[in-house]
């Protein structure tokens, strides 16, 4: 019987979309009808749908993209209901579907998450009176335990089943817990369920004194399995038990030992009889053949008959066939032993199996099966086994790299899971294997595997490692990702992660870092990809890169108008994966390594060719000096940046290393098959960065190298003390002579953007000093043009400081805001434009969000218009003038800026927070008072009630500002005056 609407072709031939349609059709069939009073035709259709779903499970659809989402949408609820179905046939087949998924799903992380859905239903099924249903439920639970399908949530549900009301449920749950404990046995003090030892002990304490005899027996068996894995916890539990329970446990132990002895004796006798029966005829035949040969040698001169020669030839062929058969039998037996070892519950057996696999892989005939058995062992609970699996995978990669092409998603996901573990040795080995995968495999295959892992992974920490690995892939293959197709695929996949995760989270920050790397790798291609995105997707990318690439909005606007883009500094990109990999390489052998490896690690090195510096280099690692001591010293010049080509040349100071802030083309190839790549801007170096003192001599104050040098040290400062020392020194340098900071102001501002929002130390001095530097820079006439270009970013940092919990930081932020608006160094038009753009950033996000910093920025608009009043003049096309002109009047506002500002204020009037609405109304009143009816056309979007509210506050403030007048000023109505001017009426009330 076939299901109507269900395709008959295999899921292997289906695309992801076709599979989703197929699953939805099966879900509709399973969810149709009343499950209690259904007709025979209806439940037969559902039975066929369950069989079809079981077939899909056996074909391993867990490899498909979005498997977890598809299962939660289409399978979760229907399969739960059919497990609890009254009809036995439907219930048993539903259990078979769960078994099929458990045995054939290669995406174990997703399946362990799904197991939590079905364990409660399976436990409920054990309460049935029909033994067929009970047996199906218990068998399914045992299969889940043996296939390591229990995750954290599923195990919690199973523990609850140990204390259920029904005795059969309790007994079955204890048997499953026993299997789980046996599956996770190891002797390395790494019990995978170590977080649940107290829970298991408490549950066993209740089970050992249960009222049901079968439950007590299951609990005793579970106790001895627990004793094998965790003897200390089991002994602690044993001491707290009553004497009758202890005697029952000892009696159970002696019975089980007697059974084991009987089983071992019977197995040894059967094996010895079978081996003698099989080996003895072979020995006899070989002996007969040898005797025949000897007889022929002795009787050769007497009789050389053809019959004797034929007999000897037959004997020789018999021996060859027997030896060949024996070798085939030995190969099959060794393969069976290897499979059993890799699937064993004992960690020592698995370790021996992996070592045997590494030694004999080149001679094995079942290489594909070996790889499939090897993948689950990469995440083995025992870190020794997992490390041996990584070594075996390196052997597979060297001998047969083509076997890993189809298994790359599972391989990369397993290694990324190891990176998030707490074993440093295992993390380092996994990271090195991931780096070697990039060298051995195709870039497109690795990229597709990473993107699929990002869709399947649920844990945020593993997602962060996947994004860092993708970022490392981009930096190692810059020419490839500078092309339009790989760039578009990368941006699209990272955009999905951005849209699905919360802002300011670790995953969101890693996604922003990956997008920044793509921007650095291929700037032109990145802009072409942005044009192909939708408006919403483009806004999401631009908003995410607002801090890392602040000029991206300007570049997009200029490119859309066909204008030539301006020159901006290349953003600074960190690669945590490369940093960790470099620390591992330099930490393992600081003095060893080939010339190419050292040249890759060091981009800009200045060393003297003498041997004395080479001898002193290792001693330099032992000397540690704080940054405050370095800055207090005098003397020494700050050398300029060197290129890679000057690294071998002579020059002053020994062992001075400098980073370059841009991506430089690589001069070294790792192999002839690799495409040229670019060095990562923060790639690790072989030698420590020297702490050179800053020259306080006035003769060198104009040297730009001083500013660059101090920024280098600020970037690598460790701890709040060093950071505060450098920030204080920078503040003094800018106050004394700001000229050297003209060319490096952009880099300084990027450092402040990292320090001010992210500094969370208790002494809050880093944030305060960063804002003090901004105050000094804003008040400097030399740096006025540099600050004017970044005025919006300065206001955003000011808002962050106003929202700080420490009053000192808030005071400095408010002082900085007042300095910008009241100093007169910056034109009113430019200040209001920066305020409008900053407030647009606020309203672009969550509509319900409000803070004191944003309110103060909105209030500052009201203060500006109230302070200047009628002296403000609105002009057309003010944007054509230079933003910093000496002859600019302080009260001139351009029409484009005023239009943007009024649009933001109108949006604030419609905000969901009452305090924001009231502040926006007062801003509208101040604008109306300053510009009179000239401002009314810009308030057309206000509703009738909003216009009425603004009119009420206008009349009230007008009366308060003129207390000496005897007569009351005339009452004004915004709606009436707009009607007189011919402006459109309000659309809604």
Automatic annotation (TrEMBL):
<dbReference type="GO" id="GO:0008017">
    <property type="term" value="F:microtubule binding"/>
</dbReference>
<feature type="region of interest" description="Disordered">
    <location>
        <begin position="581"/>
        <end position="659"/>
    </location>
</feature>
<feature type="compositionally biased region" description="Polar residues">
    <location>
        <begin position="300"/>
        <end position="318"/>
    </location>
</feature>
<feature type="domain" description="TOG">
    <location>
        <begin position="22"/>
        <end position="263"/>
    </location>
</feature>
<feature type="region of interest" description="Disordered">
    <location>
        <begin position="294"/>
        <end position="318"/>
    </location>
</feature>
<dbReference type="InterPro" id="IPR011989">
    <property type="entry name" value="ARM-like"/>
</dbReference>
<dbReference type="GO" id="GO:0000278">
    <property type="term" value="P:mitotic cell cycle"/>
</dbReference>
<dbReference type="InterPro" id="IPR024395">
    <property type="entry name" value="CLASP_N_dom"/>
</dbReference>
<dbReference type="GO" id="GO:0000226">
    <property type="term" value="P:microtubule cytoskeleton organization"/>
</dbReference>
<dbReference type="InterPro" id="IPR016024">
    <property type="entry name" value="ARM-type_fold"/>
</dbReference>
<feature type="domain" description="TOG">
    <location>
        <begin position="322"/>
        <end position="554"/>
    </location>
</feature>
<dbReference type="Pfam" id="PF12348">
    <property type="entry name" value="CLASP_N"/>
</dbReference>
<protein>
    <submittedName>
        <fullName>Putative CLIP-associating protein 1-like</fullName>
    </submittedName>
</protein>
<dbReference type="GO" id="GO:0005881">
    <property type="term" value="C:cytoplasmic microtubule"/>
</dbReference>
<dbReference type="GO" id="GO:0005819">
    <property type="term" value="C:spindle"/>
</dbReference>
<dbReference type="InterPro" id="IPR034085">
    <property type="entry name" value="TOG"/>
</dbReference>
<feature type="compositionally biased region" description="Polar residues">
    <location>
        <begin position="605"/>
        <end position="616"/>
    </location>
</feature>
<feature type="compositionally biased region" description="Gly residues">
    <location>
        <begin position="647"/>
        <end position="656"/>
    </location>
</feature>
């Amino acid at each position: 019987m076939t299901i109507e609407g269900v395709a008959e072709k295999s899921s292997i031939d289906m695309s992801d979309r076709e599979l989703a349609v197929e699953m939805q059709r099966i879900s509709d069939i399973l969810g149709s009808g009343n499950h209690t009073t259904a007709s025979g035709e209806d439940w037969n259709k559902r039975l066929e749908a369950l069989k079809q779903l079981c077939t899909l499970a056996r074909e391993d659809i867990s490899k498909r993209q979005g498997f977890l989402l598809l299962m939660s949408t289409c399978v979760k609820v229907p399969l739960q209901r059919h497990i609890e179905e009254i009809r036995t046939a439907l219930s048993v087949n539903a259990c078979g579907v769960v078994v099929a998924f458990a045995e054939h799903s290669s995406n174990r992380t997703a399946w362990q998450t799904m197991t939590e859905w079905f364990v409660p239903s399976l436990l409920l099924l054990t309460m049935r009176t029909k033994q067929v249903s009970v047996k199906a439920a218990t068998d399914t639970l045992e299969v889940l335990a043996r296939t390591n399908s229990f995750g954290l949530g599923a195990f919690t549900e199973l523990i609850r089943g140990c204390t259920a009301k029904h005795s059969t449920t309790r007994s079955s749950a204890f048997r499953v817990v026993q299997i789980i404990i046996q599956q996770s046995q190891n002797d390395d003090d790494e019990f995978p369920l170590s977080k649940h030892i107290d829970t298991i002990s408490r549950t066993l304490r209740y089970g050992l004194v249960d009222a049901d005899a079968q439950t007590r027996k299951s609990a005793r068996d579970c106790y001895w399995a627990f004793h094998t894995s965790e003897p200390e916890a089991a002994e602690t539990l044993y001491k707290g038990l009553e004497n009758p329970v202890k005697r029952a446990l000892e009696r159970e132990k002696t019975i089980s030992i007697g059974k084991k002895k009987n089983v071992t004796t019977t197995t040894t006798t059967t094996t010895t009889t079978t081996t003698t029966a099989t080996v003895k005829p072979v020995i006899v035949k070989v002996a007969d053949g040898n005797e025949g040969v000897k007889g022929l040698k002795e009787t050769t001169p007497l009789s050389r008959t053809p019959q004797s020669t034929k007999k000897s030839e037959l004997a020789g062929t018999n021996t060859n066939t027997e030896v060949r058969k024996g070798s085939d039998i030995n190969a099959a037996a060794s393969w069976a032993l290897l499979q059993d070892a890799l699937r064993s519950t004992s960690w020592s057996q698995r370790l021996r199996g992996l070592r045997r696999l590494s030694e004999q892989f080149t001679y094995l005939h079942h290489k594909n099966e070996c790889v499939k058995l090897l993948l689950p062992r990469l995440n083995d609970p025992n870190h020794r086994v997992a490390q041996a699996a990584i070594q075996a995978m390196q052997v597979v990669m060297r001998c047969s790299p083509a076997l890993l092409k189809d298994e790359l998603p599972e391989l990369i996901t397993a290694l990324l899971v190891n990176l998030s573990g707490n074993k440093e040795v295992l993390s380092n080995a996994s990271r090195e294997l991931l780096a070697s995968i990039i060298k051995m495999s195709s870039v497109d295959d690795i990229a597709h595997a990473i993107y699929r892992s990002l869709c399947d992974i649920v844990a945020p920490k593993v997602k962060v490692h996947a994004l860092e690995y993708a970022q490392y892939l981009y930096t190692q293959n810059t020419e490839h990702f500078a092309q339009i197709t790989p760039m578009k695929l990368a941006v699209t996949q990272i955009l999905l992660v951005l849209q699905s995760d919360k802002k300011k989270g670790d995953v969101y920050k890693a996604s922003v870092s990956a997008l920044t790397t793509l921007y650095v790798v291929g700037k032109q291609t990145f802009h072409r990809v942005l044009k192909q995105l939708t408006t919403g997707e483009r806004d999401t990318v631009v908003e995410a890169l607002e801090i890392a690439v602040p000029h991206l909005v300007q570049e997009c606007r200029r490119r859309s108008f066909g204008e030539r883009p301006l020159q901006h500094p290349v953003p600074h990109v960190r690669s945590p994966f490369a940093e960790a990999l470099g620390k591992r390489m330099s930490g393992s052998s600081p003095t060893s390594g080939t010339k190419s490896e050292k040249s890759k690690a060091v981009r800009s090195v200045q060393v003297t060719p003498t041997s004395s510096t080479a001898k002193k280099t290792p001693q330099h690692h032992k000397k540690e000096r704080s940054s405050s001591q370095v800055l207090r010293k005098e003397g020494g010049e700050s050398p300029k940046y060197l290129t890679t080509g000057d690294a071998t040349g002579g020059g002053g100071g020994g062992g001075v290393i400098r980073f370059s802030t841009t991506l430089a083309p690589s001069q070294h190839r790792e192999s002839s098959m690799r495409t040229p790549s670019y060095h990562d801007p923060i790639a690790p170096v072989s030698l420590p960065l020297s702490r050179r003192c800053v020259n306080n001599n006035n003769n060198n104050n104009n040297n730009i190298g001083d500013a660059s040098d101090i920024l280098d040290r600020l970037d690598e400062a460790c701890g709040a003390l060093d950071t505060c020392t450098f920030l204080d020194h920078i503040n003094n340098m800018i106050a004394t002579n700001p000229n050297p900071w003209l060319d490096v102001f952009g880099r300084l501002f990027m450092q402040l953007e990292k320090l001010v929002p992210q500094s969370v130390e208790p002494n809050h001095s880093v944030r305060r000093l960063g804002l003090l530097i901004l105050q000094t820079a804003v008040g400097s006439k030399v740096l006025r043009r540099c600050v004017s270009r970044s005025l919006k970013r300065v206001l955003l940092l000011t808002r962050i400081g106003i929202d700080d919990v420490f009053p000192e930081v808030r005071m400095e932020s408010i002082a900085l805001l007042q300095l910008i608006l009241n100093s007169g160094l910056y034109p009113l038009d430019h200040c209001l434009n920066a305020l409008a753009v900053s407030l647009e950033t606020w309203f672009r996000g969550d509509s319900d969000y409000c803070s004191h910093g944003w309110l103060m920025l909105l209030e500052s608009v009201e203060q500006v218009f109230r302070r200047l009043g009628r002296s403000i003049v609105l002009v057309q096309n003010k944007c054509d003038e230079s933003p910093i002109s000496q002859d600019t009047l302080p009260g001139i506002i351009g029409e484009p800026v005023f239009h943007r500002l009024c649009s933001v204020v109108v949006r604030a009037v419609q905000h969901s927070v009452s305090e924001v609405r009231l502040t926006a109304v007062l801003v509208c009143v101040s604008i109306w008072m300053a510009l009179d009816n000239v401002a009314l056309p810009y308030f057309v979007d206000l509703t009738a009630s909003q216009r009425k509210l603004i009119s009420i506050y206008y009349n009230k403030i007008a009366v308060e500002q003129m207390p000496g007048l005897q007569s009351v000023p005339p009452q004004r109505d915004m709606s009436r005056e707009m009607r007189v001017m011919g402006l459109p009426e309000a659309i809604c009330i």
